[in-house]
Amino acid sequence: MACAKLTKLFDTTSIVWLPEGRQNSAMQRFIRRSWVQVSPELSFVRCRMRPKLAIFSAVIFCFLMVSGPMFAHHGNSAYDMSKTVPMKATVTKFEYSNPHTQVYYDVTDDKGEVEHWVAETTNPAMLNRVGWTKDTLKPGDQVILFVNPNKVGAKITFLEKVVFPDGKELSTAKAF
């Protein structure tokens, strides 16, 4: 069987090549009987998508795939924004990073036991606009935090305002 030499089987708008030794096969006879000549407008070989349209479609598809998580942001729905609770706190850690700045703090309850809490607020770029810096809070700082409690009672809150011992106040409300 000479597979190296190829023979042209049909002379149509779509060209099919078969090895020379296979020209008398049952499949070749089936193709010859059921072959229908089509115009170039209907041929899959001739009807290619224009490259610009293909690129545009790919860009749109990629944009939609990447932007999906952006619409899933929760906002402040986990917090009861109608209540503001003052908490005397000792700062244990201050993370000034995206996507949300976090203040880790300890609060002493009525029984004298220390509870570990976390306050979340907006991103650093928004806080910079209202006077915050990465050095605003340091571990060991004694402050009063005005927070919105979590709806389910978790020890995670949303920070509205910080009052320092000297009376200085920093708010997050104008950052939005």
What does this structure look like?
The chain has 3 helices and 8 strands. It has 176 residues and is α+β, with helices and mostly antiparallel strands. The strands form 2 sheets. Strands 3-4-5-7-6 form a 5-stranded mixed barrel. A two-stranded antiparallel ribbon has the order 1-2. The protein starts with 5 loop residues before the first strand and ends in a 5-residue tail after the last strand.
- Say what the CATH topology of the largest domain is: OB fold (Dihydrolipoamide Acetyltransferase, E2P)
Question: How much helicity do the residues have?
Answer: 10-25%
Strand order of the largest sheet: 3-4-5-7-6
What is the helix tally?
Answer: 3
Q: Structural class per helix/strand content?
A: alpha+beta
What's the CATH architecture name of the largest domain?
Beta Barrel
End-to-end C-alpha gap: 78 Å
- Which stretches are poorly predicted, pLDDT < 50 over at least 5 residues? 1-13, 15-19
CATH class category name of the largest domain: Mainly Beta
Order of helices and strands: EEHHEEEHEEE
Number of individual domains: 2
Count the E strands: 8
Secondary structure layout plus pairing:
Blueprint: E1 6-8, E2 17-19, H1 26-34, H2 51-67, E3 85-95, E4 102-108, E5 114-120, H3 124-128, E6 142-148, E7 156-163, E8 169-171
Parallel strand pairs: 5-7
Antiparallel strand pairs: 1-2, 3-4, 3-6, 4-5, 6-7, 7-8
